[in-house]
TrEMBL record:
Its EC number is 5.4.99.18. It comes from Haloplanus ruber. Catalyzes the conversion of N5-carboxyaminoimidazole ribonucleotide (N5-CAIR) to 4-carboxy-5-aminoimidazole ribonucleotide (CAIR). InterPro entries: PurE_ClassI, PurE_dom, PurE_prokaryotes. Keywords: Isomerase, Lyase, Purine biosynthesis. It is an enzyme of class 5 (isomerase). This is N5-carboxyaminoimidazole ribonucleotide mutase. Residues 25-184 form the PurE domain. Pfam families: AIRC. Gene3D superfamilies: 3.40.50.1970. GO terms for biological process: 'de novo' IMP biosynthetic process. Pathway: Purine metabolism; IMP biosynthesis via de novo pathway; 5-amino-1-(5-phospho-D-ribosyl)imidazole-4-carboxylate from 5-amino-1-(5-phospho-D-ribosyl)imidazole (N5-CAIR route): step 2/2. It comes from the Archaea.
């Protein structure tokens, strides 16, 4: 069984390893519980669509140039792991963190933002009732956040941040946006040309 101390030790060892930034994940996805996974999977979908690969072994990066990693880190059950993750994030090569938590005490995003500062953290309130606790930060302690459940947008925002440094990501974001526009065009024409009944029954 993996203990929390082992996870914490691994994070510190990775931070000390001083790896080339091309071999480390650019984006870290963390969530308060594995029960958040369905909601946080939107970030996974967006990153995959933008050509990011998941790095599951820090010492053995995938071939893709851009990668992300994912962990469960609970602000309340494992505050020591949260602290270690935030504290080592920049030295481990991360450029941006996407942090999701649910419930009324959704403190992982806001606390990680404070610990990892000045690394940007994008908070995802997993439920509507989590919004206030994710975004309610005092002056001088910033967090960027998306609406409840919008982890897909959190990933797009993360890639927008990365794209300031990596021009080829701009093109991927533009292609993503063009696909979105084509999708609207397709349903718009379908709705108009088939009419409402025809559109509703189009798969029959
Ligand atoms: N949570 C986990 N540790 C601290 C907090 N606030 C959040 C999780 C999840 C919710 O509590 O992010 O959305 C319920 O977690 P669980 O594990 O009981 O399903």
């Amino acid at each position: 069984m993996t203990g929390i101390d082992d996870l914490i030790d691994d994070l510190h060892a990775q931070a000390a390893a001083d790896r080339d930034s091309e071999t480390t994940p650019e984006v870290g996805i963390i969530m308060g519980s594995d029960s958040d996974l369905d909601t946080m999977a939107g970030a996974y979908d967006a990153l995959q669509e933008l050509g990011f690969a998941e790095q599951t072994n820090y010492d053995d990066p995938p071939e893709a140039r851009f990668t992300f990693e994912s962990y469960v880190v609970s602000a309340h059950r494992t505050p020591d792991l949260m602290y270690a993750y935030g504290e080592t994030a920049a030295d481990r090569g991360l450029d941006v963190i996407i942090a999701g938590a649910g419930g009324k005490s959704a403190d992982l995003p806001n606390m990680t933002a404070s610990i990892a500062y000045p690394l940007p953290v994008i908070g995802v309130p997993v439920q509507e009732k989590s919004v206030d606790s994710v975004i309610g930060m005092p002056t001088g302690a910033p967090i960027v956040a998306v609406d409840a459940g919008k982890s897909y947008n959190a990933a797009l925002s993360a890639v927008q941040i990365l794209a300031r440094e990596h021009a080829d990501l701009i093109e991927r974001l533009e292609t993503e946006h063009d696909d979105l526009r084509s999708g609207v065009a397709e349903v718009s024409r379908g709705l108009h040309d088939r009419g409402i009944d025809g559109f509703r029954n189009r798969h029959e």
